[in-house]
Specification:
It is a single chain. The chain has 11 helices and 25 strands. By secondary structure, it is α+β, with helices and mostly antiparallel strands. The chain is globular, with a radius of gyration of 27 Å. The two termini are about 50 Å apart.
Amino acid sequence: MRPVLRLLSISTMLAVGSSALQAAVALASPFTDHAVLQRGQPIPVWGTADVGEKVTVTFDGQTKTVTVGDDKKWLIKLDAHTAGGPYDLTIAGTNTITLTDILVGEVWVCSGQSNMEWTVKSSLNPDQEIAAAKFPKLRHFKVEKKTSDSPLTSCVGSWTVCNPETASGYTAVGYFFGRKLLQELDVPIGLLHTSWGGTPAEAWTSKPALTGTTTFKDVTTAWDKQAETYPAQVENFKKVMTKWEADVAAAKAAGKPEPKKPRPPQDPKTSPHKPASLYNGMLNPLVPYGIKGAIWYQGESNAGRAKDYRELMALMIGDWRTSFGQGDFPFYVVQLANYMKRSDQPTDTAWAALREAQYLITKTVKNTGMSVTIDIGEGEDIHPKNKQDVGLRLALIALAKDYGKQIACSGPEYKAMTVDGANAVVSFEHLGGGLTVTGEKLTGFAIAGEDKKFVWAEAKIVGDTVVVFAPSVTKPTAVRYAWADNPECSLSNKAGLPAVPFRTDRP
């Protein structure tokens, strides 16, 4: 729901002329009724007005004023506030805007591709989840899909209060993440949801950041060249369509099946795959809204480019942090779930490599973490319905790292490997009370000898280690675990969190 303006009377408007309308104070898109503002840090409030206009913002006893500059933009930073509400937020200039039911709590950006876009109504047990979604302190802002060649300052969206009528369309991962935070912290939770299915990470990164690197400058240049050739592609498509129409007529006359209709070329300027297009259209309008951090579920569209992805994600995270100007805020990613057909033999795969890149990002980029989902995939369905565990595992990371909860937030993580005769002995961090097996037996391990050829291995838990062996390997040199598109794996800790896929032979 957008705020209602207190408009000037008709007689006043006629008296002062159209200039008064041009001078009307406007708020940035993320500010609507029911908004959640970030606690514990200065609160940016911004918008537009006429040059020289004095804009006053009032919030729970605070009043601050700024004079609008030549760019017709204004920004006021309210003093840090504790969690609470509801409050009114009033912005006054030539006109007055009053937002109601404003809460102060924890705000998280929820972004990525289709698995973040996936809604509560499409997840496990939707009827029960929706009926139970009565959390007035949980709020959701959905950014409408939009691409742009240049950074936009506005978007379409509004804050909604979580109830059975609204929650069905929420990002499921974000909802289950936010619900857990609300239950544990008992403070308002705001979810800024900006995602688009099937999109690569470079679309969510700004053009200056991309062109400032050797690796990704060429990618953006290639897209720019595609834009130049698009008019010629359109003209050629017209010829293709003319031929297709003739082929259809001939097929009908001969009683044959109609040929498949050609797909038109996509305008690179409006493609959600274009580098920076979604940063411009769907992230920049949120900047510099006060946030606690971000959760990210993406990677499927970058599978096959694992090496570049590691660099790209580090670049994107730094880019977002620079844009919001709120320091190295937490950034937590979801590692890709198991997907596709199960392999008969150990092999290198693009998805395994991409998962490793995601893991390495969290080991090299400050204040990041990873939710492992290698156990919740659904074979050949790229959209696992179990978003409950995804959101929960992300929340555990935030609760442990950002909110001081003494809880396990990671499954077993590879630490080291030693060789004892024909056995490879693997040790782990994040034991979470101890190693355990989910299911009947320990699976998912492969072992290689001096020939570097991996075979499936037997494995057993011995104390805080896993001993891995195979009859055909007498001198082990490397071990891999859950290294496949859709691995069979069963190692976890007693906290119920799955082990992180790994390979000891990482280059």
